[in-house]
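Researcher: Let's do a round of design. I'm pasting the structure tokens now; please hold your answer until I've finished.
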């Protein structure tokens, strides 16, 4: 009996040991994860990082790295190779898993670590051309002496850090998911750049627009989806004179675009992916120096998409934020200039309806059946056999399809292809390599010649007091409206006719109004000779920024910080008084009347403790839905007029059939108010409960995120915070004899959830504080942060 018990005990121990140290599908080995020596316990930081570090191995000359109290590395090197080697090494020290995971996601390789649940995602990534696009970037890196060498040195630095790691010290996410770091390469940097390009410009509303046009016709579309909405203040001041002879504009085809009833193959444009930037000329500031401000709006994640660094060579220092995995400072300043960026609303991507035959090996174009190019993709799947998938390419670009969605099955006779500027971009980040070293406006302009995609509004200021803003990128040469709807892939009239010369891209330098600004609104007025796009962000943020800047005199940097935190609700300023005058108070109960009174006294700002923004936002959402639900079919994929154009309808024509229909407008307004107010909880009426602001972990792990933040803002306010999307970085820089800059992002330098440096910036960011960001001189002492 004892021998049997002993056998069972030994066998049980062996089985338990095997279970604890074996991965099942995407589940990590539990024993390895819980190992007190090498497991997740090792990731809790109990000792502070060194304030200084000298790199000697792998570099040509010793590199000095000094960390300030915010853990910002100040890297001092004597040559480019050592500078970027050190940058790769230091960023990997803090953000290795983030870099690894992001590039795997971009490349369609998540199935390798997550198993079959990520398979459809990986297929979609590859079918949308990410692999080919990344290799285009890679070839551009390899053929560029300066920037290619920077990318290679950066990869060497990342790999040097990876080789220094012991299994017990790898980031916790590797232990959670049960995989190990793999070597970095320039191709991974290419995938990172491709992923950023995709985030900012890979979207289209062509399918929903085509469906809506088929339903309502051109008159409806031109009215509710105007090319240039009333009230627009473009980024480049209206009536700007263009000092060039434009290229001939291609002729639009006689036939209307092909109809579409398909479901979308791409995400709709997200106007939350936006940003603000502006720069005030020295003639309008108290000091006489130019002041630049920038706050790009992106998804807020932990680890943050940004990492603060200073990069210094003899005679040159640049400081600001970088993308982990990509060399150089992307947004920031040096001793001479400062720069920032916002996303351009642009026609960077067109969707083409195709006629296909022979299992999609041929497509019709210009009266001929042309062969598609088939590329095989092998997807490795954790815990399962490899999956072989096929990507079909036309001269437009890849045919995008999803499994199980007609007409995207293996045997299809129709489909949709995409043409995207991201497939042909080559050296956009060479621009930042050069701007890091810029000393003048001319240097800045010269750097823009390399910028292809994603198109950006790049703002500039220098020590001379000058300011400028340029639309940077490669823009297709199109006829007006091309790409607005699904294009006919068989008709060559829908092919892109070429490119707008970069020297014809819109810009303004030291405009008469004394400032430049952008908030993703229309780039230019209709006098610009080329067609760029129709679907820009609403004018709300842009109008408020321009109004506030125009009213300022003797501007100081803190005026810029306060403007970044401005919570004016432009929609409420435009329409709330009309709604208050229209609602039928006789139908309201005492509680509803009290709510209406508080709304009447609201200052039209989306501040966190106020109830006014809560009541208005719910009321407006219910009214908007009420208006258009009666107009649109119950089912189908359509584009509805946005808030801005619906408000304009109310202001211009309250008797419109679209506002009244079977129900008078006043009854709609009253019913929408009562319905929305009834759903509000008196205990959680304060706006911050409904703003639901948070900074979430990339994997959605609740314990690794912030939870709901006590914050102000709204997606259409200058403080464009909405859920987990908002100002991902804030910078205010005054360009005098020395640069005085302050900045912050919502996160921390470390990517380790067990580190006190993981989210230590978040609360200050939510309060609108900025950290001093002086340029450290070599041999300088550690900088101490003093709150403003």
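Researcher: That's everything. Go ahead.
Model: Designed sequence:
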């Amino acid at each position: 009996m004892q021998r049997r018990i002993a056998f069972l005990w030994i066998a049980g121990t062996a089985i338990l040991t095997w279970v604890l140290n074996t991965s099942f599908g995407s589940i990590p080995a539990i024993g390895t994860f819980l190992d007190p020596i090498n497991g997740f316990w090792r990731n809790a930081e109990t000792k502070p990082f060194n304030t200084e570090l000298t790199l000697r191995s792998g570099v040509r000359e010793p590199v000095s790295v000094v960390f300030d109290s915010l853990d910002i590395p100040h890297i001092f090197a004597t040559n480019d190779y050592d500078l970027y080697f050190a940058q790769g090494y230091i960023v990997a020290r803090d953000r290795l898993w983030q870099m690894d995971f992001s590039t795997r996601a971009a490349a369609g390789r998540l199935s390798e670590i997550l198993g079959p649940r990520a398979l459809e995602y990986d297929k979609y990534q590859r079918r949308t051309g990410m692999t080919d696009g990344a290799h285009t970037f890679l070839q551009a890196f390899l053929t560029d002496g300066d920037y290619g060498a920077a990318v290679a040195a950066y990869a060497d630095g990342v790999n040097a850090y990876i080789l220094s790691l012991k299994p017990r010290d790898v980031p916790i996410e590797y232990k959670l998911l049960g995989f190990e770091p793999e070597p970095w390469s320039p191709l991974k940097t290419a995938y990172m750049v491709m992923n950023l390009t995709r985030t900012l410009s890979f979207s289209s509303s062509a399918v929903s627009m085509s469906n809506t046009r088929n339903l309502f016709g051109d008159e409806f579309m031109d009215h509710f989806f105007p090319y240039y909405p009333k009230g627009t203040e473009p980024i480049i001041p209206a009536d700007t004179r263009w000092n060039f002879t434009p290229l001939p504009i291609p002729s639009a085809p006689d036939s209307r675009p092909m109809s579409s009833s398909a479901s979308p193959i791409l995400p709709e444009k997200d106007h939350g992916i936006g940003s603000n930037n502006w720069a005030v000329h020295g003639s309008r500031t108290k000091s006489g120096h130019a002041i630049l401000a920038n706050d790009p709006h992106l998804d807020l994640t932990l680890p943050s998409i940004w990492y603060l660094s200073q990069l210094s060579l003899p005679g040159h220092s640049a400081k600001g934020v970088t993308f982990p995995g990509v060399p150089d400072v992307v947004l920031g300043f040096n001793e001479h200039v400062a720069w920032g960026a916002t996303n351009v609303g642009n026609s960077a991507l067109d969707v083409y309806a195709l006629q296909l035959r022979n299992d999609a090996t041929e497509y019709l174009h210009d009266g001929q059946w042309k062969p598609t190019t088939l590329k095989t993709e092998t997807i490795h799947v954790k815990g399962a056999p490899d999956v072989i998938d096929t990507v079909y390419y036309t001269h437009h670009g890849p045919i995008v399809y999803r499994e199980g969605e007609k007409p995207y099955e293996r045997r299809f006779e129709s489909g949709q292809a995409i043409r995207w500027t991201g497939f042909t971009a080559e050296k956009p980040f060479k621009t930042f390599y050069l701007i890091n070293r810029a000393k003048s406006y001319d240097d800045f302009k010269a750097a823009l010649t390399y910028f292809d995609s994603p198109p950006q509004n790049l703002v500039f200021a220098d020590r001379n007091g000058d300011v400028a803003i340029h639309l940077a990128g490669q823009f297709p040469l199109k006829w007006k409206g091309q790409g607005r709807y699904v294009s006919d892939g068989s008709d060559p009239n829908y092919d892109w006719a070429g490119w707008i010369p970069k020297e014809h891209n819109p810009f303004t330098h030291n405009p008469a109004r004394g400032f430049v600004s952008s908030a993703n609104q229309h780039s230019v007025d209709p006098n610009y000779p080329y067609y760029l796009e129709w679907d820009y962000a609403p004018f709300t943020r842009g109008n408020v920024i321009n109004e506030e800047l125009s009213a300022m005199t003797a501007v100081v940097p803190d005026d810029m910080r306060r403007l970044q935190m401005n919570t004016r609700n432009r929609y409420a300023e435009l329409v709330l008084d009309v709604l208050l005058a229209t609602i039928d108070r006789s139908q309201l109960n005492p509680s509803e009347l009290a709510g209406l009174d508080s709304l009447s006294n609201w200052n039209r700002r989306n501040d966190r403790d106020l109830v006014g923004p809560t009541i208005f936002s719910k009321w407006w959402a219910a009214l908007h839905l009420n208006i258009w639900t009666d107009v649109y079919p119950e089912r189908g994929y359509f584009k509805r007029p946005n808030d801005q154009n619906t408000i304009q309808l109310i202001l211009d024509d309250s008797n419109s059939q679209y506002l009244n229909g079977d129900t008078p407008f006043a009854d709609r307004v009253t019913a929408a108010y009562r319905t929305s107010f009834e759903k509000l909880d008196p205990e959680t009426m304060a706006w911050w409960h409904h703003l639901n602001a948070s900074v979430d972990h990339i994997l959605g792990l609740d314990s690794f995120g912030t939870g709901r933040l006590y914050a102000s803002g709204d997606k259409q306010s200058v403080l464009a915070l909405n859920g987990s999307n908002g100002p991902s970085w804030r910078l205010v820089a005054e360009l005098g004899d020395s640069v005085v800059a302050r900045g912050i992002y919502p996160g921390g330098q470390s990517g380790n959830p067990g580190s006190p440096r993981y989210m230590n910036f978040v609360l200050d960011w939510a309060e609108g504080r900025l950290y001093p960001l002086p340029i450290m001189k070599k041999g300088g002492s550690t900088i101490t942060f003093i709150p403003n």
